[in-house]
Automatic annotation (TrEMBL):
Binds 1 zinc ion per subunit. PANTHER family: 4-DEOXY-L-THREO-5-HEXOSULOSE-URONATE KETOL-ISOMERASE. Zn(2+) binds at residues 198, 200, 205, 247. Its EC number is 5.3.1.17. It catalyses: 5-dehydro-4-deoxy-D-glucuronate = 3-deoxy-D-glycero-2,5-hexodiulosonate. One of its GO terms (biological process) is D-galacturonate catabolic process. The lineage of its organism: Bacteria, Pseudomonadati, Bacteroidota, Flavobacteriia, Flavobacteriales. Keywords: Isomerase, Metal-binding, Zinc. The keyword Transmembrane helix does not apply. Belongs to the KduI family. Pathway: Glycan metabolism; pectin degradation; 2-dehydro-3-deoxy-D-gluconate from pectin: step 4/5. GO terms for molecular function: 4-deoxy-L-threo-5-hexosulose-uronate ketol-isomerase activity; zinc ion binding. It is an enzyme of class 5 (isomerase). This is 4-deoxy-L-threo-5-hexosulose-uronate ketol-isomerase.
Length: 280
């Protein structure tokens, strides 16, 4: 099995202000998540968060155990959130199988020794998007469908941000130590996500953009509210958002994205809001 692991150090807002486009992208953008028969993991030193992707085609894939986490196995002191953004697949956790369809989620708790990913049809593979954070307690694993999710409708067509938020791996749906994940789907004609913007000094976040139509892109905005920067992103790419940064975006078409976060609390509403007219 092939795997790729990368470690990214934390960046301060003062450093980020000095970065050119290439340096900004190399520190925050994660470009290649899904490669056939490979597991790709990127560790951010912001809250020791790991963002990854697994796309099994001709073989079953095991989650690697990078030396950087200094553990006997990947989930020895971690938990894992999984959302499938491809065709139907199967996740096997210590012998228990979970069939995960498109836009369904799975939470795996601390202490699971073996995790394997496979596709039901290798010619139409599953794409397992992965988020992991350190864990202090072993909570039960749980599959979450959109029927189980806490769903919120926000925004409006008039402000181009009409969207549906599906809270999948959150404390109102499943017990976790740190990891929270959900999926936001923009309605046709709407392009702005997470606007008005916010920060939260208690948690970092990662955004994964998908369902971006061919020949379209998303412009992701980051940085302190009065010192913003942007990163142009393509379909099925992710971006690391530090706790000092806003995390918002606008696309040339509507799209979907997965948000994942970890930090000091599990309060979804813990946000320091930024007025639109004060952004710079």
């Amino acid at each position: 099995m092939n795997s790729n692991f990368e470690s990214r150090y934390t960046i301060s807002p003062n450093e980020a202000k000095q970065m050119d486009t290439a340096t900004l992208r190399s520190n925050f953008l994660i470009e290649n998540l899904f490669i056939a028969d490979q597991v790709n993991l990127t560790l951010s030193h912001f809250d020791r968060y790991i963002v990854g992707g697994a796309m099994p085609t001709t073989q079953k894939l095991a989650i690697p155990n990078p030396d950087n986490i200094k553990a006997n196995y990947f989930l020895e002191r971690r938990e894992l959130g999984i959302i499938n953004v491809g065709a139907k697949g199967i996740v096997t956790a210590d012998g228990e199988q979970y069939e995960i369809d498109y836009k369904e989620a799975l939470y795996l708790g601390k202490g699971i020794k073996e995790v394997h990913f496979e596709s039901v049809d290798g010619n139409n593979p599953a794409k397992f998007y992965l988020n992991s954070a350190p864990a202090h307690h072993a909570y039960p694993s749980k599959k979450i469908t959109k029927a189980d999710a806490e769903i919120v409708e926000l925004g409006s067509m008039e402000t181009a941000n009409h969207r549906i938020i599906n809270k999948l791996i959150v404390n109102s749906v499943v017990q976790t130590c740190q990891v929270q994940m959900g999926m936001t789907e923009l309605k046709a004609g709407s392009v702005w996500n997470t606007m008005p913007a916010h920060t939260h000094d208690r948690r970092m976040e990662a955004y994964f953009y998908f369902e971006v139509p061919e020949n379209q892109s998303v412009c992701h905005f980051m940085g302190q509210p009065q010192e913003t920067r942007h990163i142009w992103m393509q379909n099925e790419q992710a971006v690391i958002s530090p706790n000092w940064s806003i995390h918002s975006g606008a696309g040339t078409s509507n799209y979907s994205f997965i948000w994942g976060m970890a930090g000091e609390n599990l309060d979804y509403g813990d946000m320091d809001h930024c007025s639109i007219t004060e952004l710079k």
